[in-house]
Structure formats: structure tokens, C-alpha cells
Amino acid sequence: MAKYFDVHPENPQQRTISNVADMIRSGALIAYPTDSCFALGCRLGNREGIGRIRSIRNLDERHHFTLVCENFAQLGQFVHVDKDVFRLIKAATPGSYTFILPATKEVPRQLPHPKKKTVGVRIPDHATTQALLADLGEPLLSSTLLLPDEDEPMTQGWEIKERLDHVVDAVVDSGDCGTEPTTVIDLSGGEAEIVRRGAGDTARFE
């Protein structure tokens, strides 16, 4: 059964956040809120966690996982960013955007796209997520909590606990965080390509 953590949306309780971070370090797969919708997350090198996310979401090897980062300095360790891309991302973060960029050697080999060698990265504007990332000290390997054959992500923590009780280890709930996933921008080719229109405004990339 999944543990259920009720977290204040504006002032996350540090003790609770630390408990969740300890679970992640020990190999847990969690469902947690972001500034767009709920996501599944585990530690970066957690092979079992990656497999569980693929199984829950029915994902193939071409799926772009996302590294959810605390800040720009952390993001820069895992993807190659030139000056033009730096300015674009800096202006849009933190926010509801996922950027696809060439992965560095810091990214575990099983994560980047098999042909493009790219990975998704993002910096969320969400107090609970930021508190968790700060305690963890590293990115969360994540994927939108969108189940196969469903059009919209689940929005309620209790519903996620009820439906995924035996396939995730913890559910972090800090209130409704919406149904719209991030806007996905592919910057790996030098030009901004809008892959998915979502919660983030695309005007600056068009």
C-alpha cells in the first residue's frame, strides 16, 4: 500500500518533505504534484523505478523522460545548453515547460532517446516540488501521471492513492494542481520546435 502525505501547498512541512525524500533515496516511486499536473517520480539512477513508470504508463523506449530540476545550475549539469538556448530557457523558468535537449554524460544511459540522445528537463514553479527537490539535492526522474487510454491526468491525491495504491510507494498531495501537462519545446536542433501545447504559453517560442 502506498503511503499518503498531505502537504501544505504554500508552506510544505519540512519533516514530511524529508520523509518523502528519504523514501526516494531508498528506491521509492512516488506520485507528486507539479505546477501543471501530477507526475510519477523516482531517483535518477533507479532502474526499477524507470521500469515501473514504463509499465504504469505503457511507454516504449522512445518516450522522453523528464529530469525535474530545482534550478538552472542543476539543469545545466544534465543537458548541453548554448547561449541562445540559455536565454530562452532562463526567460521561461520556473514554469510549466519541458525542454528537450542533448543529454550530457551525467544522464544514465538508459534514459536518453535511443537515437537522438536527448532528454527532457524542466524547473517547476511549485512550492511542494521545489521543497522536495531542495531536500533531495538532485533531479527527480519524472513522467506525467497520465494512464493509458485516458485523455486527462488525475487531479486528486485521494483518487491517485485509490487507483495506484499497489503500484506506487507514496502519494504526495498538496491540493489540486490542474489537468494540463507542460508545454514541450524541443530545442535540440537549435530552433524551438513546439512538440506539445500545454500549460505554458508558447508565444515566446513562435
TrEMBL record:
Domain annotation YrdC-like: ranges: 14-200
Name the UniProt record assigns to this protein: L-threonylcarbamoyladenylate synthase
Leader sequence segment: none
Species whose genome carries this gene: Streptomyces javensis
Top-level taxon in the UniProt lineage: Bacteria
Gene3D superfamilies the UniProt entry points to: DHBP synthase (3.90.870.10)
SUPFAM superfamilies with a match to the protein in the record: YrdC/RibB
Pfam families linked to this entry: Sua5_yciO_yrdC (PF01300)
InterPro entries: DHBP_synth_RibB-like_a/b_dom, Sua5-like_dom, SUA5_domain
